[in-house]
Amino acid sequence: MTEPTAFQLRQLASPRKPQTTGRGGRWVVALLLRLGCVALLAWIGYIHLHLWQEGYRQIPTNGPLFLLDAVAGFALAAVLLVWPRPLAGLLAAGYTAATLGALIISLSVGLFGFRESISASFVVESLTVESITAVGLLSWTILVAALRPPTCRPRPIVQPRSSDNHPRATSH
Questions:
Q1: What ranges make up the beta strands (E) of the chain?
Q2: How far apart are CA 52 and CA 58, in angstroms?
Q3: 93: left (phi over 0), alpha (psi -120 to 50) or beta
Q4: Cβ(56)–Cβ(63) below 8 Å
Q5: What is the per-residue pLDDT across 115-157, written as a single tens digit (0 to 9) for each?
Q6: How far apart are the C-alpha atoms of 47 and 157, rounded to whole Å?
Q7: pTM exceeding the 0.85 threshold for the entire prediction
Q8: Distance CA 111, CA 27 (A)
Q9: Listed residue (147, 153, 159, 34) closest to 92, CA to CA
Q10: Are 127 and 103 within 8 A, CB to CB?
Q11: Which of 84, 101, 99 lies closest to 33 in space, CA to CA?
């Protein structure tokens, strides 16, 4: 991984204290948006768990994926609730987009030999909830990343040259 990429990932995952000067309203919006996204992620998890229990578990390949999707929805809701970082929002948005994409593929051409019907239970609700969740998570991630105070790149450590006989003096 290149240094700039690693630095950007550390910035997305690092804790930052909110600046309250002039941005208090935005932090309230960010908090409410995050809590809404947590609820929507849990809802997605619930829908998939319910469908798995109601018979989707019998579908080869897709059945276990429904259970995995339910667990992932609940887990990402918990992660976003306790670890409110832009990286958590990106991960949750990726999960939601993948879930939505799988449903669209299943509706249009089929997925792993199973083709979903638009009239099946929870299909329209899933399309709606997953679309709103993806947009909400991306909005929250962008908002929180914009509210973060700018950070400076860490300075490289200067090593004394071997030709120097004594260490460099540093001022404190």
A1: none
A2: 8
A3: alpha
A4: yes
A5: 998 988 899 999 999 999 999 999 999 999 988 766 656 666 7
A6: 52
A7: no
A8: 41
A9: 34
A10: yes
A11: 84
